[in-house]
Amino acid sequence: MKPSEFAGILQRYVRPQTFPLGFKFIKDVSEVPEKARRFDNITLCQGYNLARFYRWTVYLDNKTVCPIGLIAYGFAEPDELYKTGELAVAGGYAGDIETGVKFEESVAKLDYGEYSGVLVFPLERDEAEPDLAVIHGMPAQILRFVHAVLHDTGGALETRIHGRASCSEYLEAYIDREPKFVLTCYGERIFGLTQDHEVSFAFPWEMADKIAENLEKTHRKGIRYPVPMSGLRSMPVLPKKYEESLENIRKSDHG
Fold this sequence. Notes:
Elements: H1 3-13, E1 21-26, E2 37-38, H2 44-54, E3 58-61, H3 67-72, H4 80-83, H5 86-90, H6 97-106, E4 117-122, E5 132-137, H7 139-150, H8 166-176, E6 180-182, H9 186-191, E7 199-204, H10 208-220, H11 240-252
Parallel strand pairs: 2-3
Antiparallel strand pairs: 1-4, 1-5, 3-4, 5-7, 6-7
């Protein structure tokens, strides 16, 4: 399935408010499209949110500035502040450096130097075959992906939530070859301007066909977005005078 086809299916069944993204890991810069926008001194989450909000194709590499993102994506090696847990303490997440070390050890990481960068683009632009897809949306929209993933398997969707480094939680979907619900992190909300009402979903691209198929199947069975709320089909509680008026109208209606 072409990325643009998948984007069309998402528009039909999920209606995301921003552009669903493809992530393509780049080994050599010669693979980067000439039109891709490049930025120095921004975070990874700023970069992919530029793609998400503005429909831009963005190339990100070791010129980004967040140490956690640089290390997670293999664009840099950990320094002593990272390895000792001091970054997590300084950020307010860890109460002491021992806890900070546990935070940093838990962050999913690509091998250092495995890729030179990552191309991030709206799926509808068909820039490349993605390695990874990431969709932001409201919880009820992201719930539809859980339905699609579990439709053939049952059980439960398992994920890990750090409260930080959600860029690395997207990577987990690529590394583990499994879909992930992502409670988009504090840093992405500060720097990437992801909104309070938004959460995320990530999956390896080879799952796109099955997710698309099951979004359609579950939609046909009545599991939909927008959620078809039962209250719109129920008799409301009316003020007493309204009830009296209604009774009068019905009595006088001889049709």
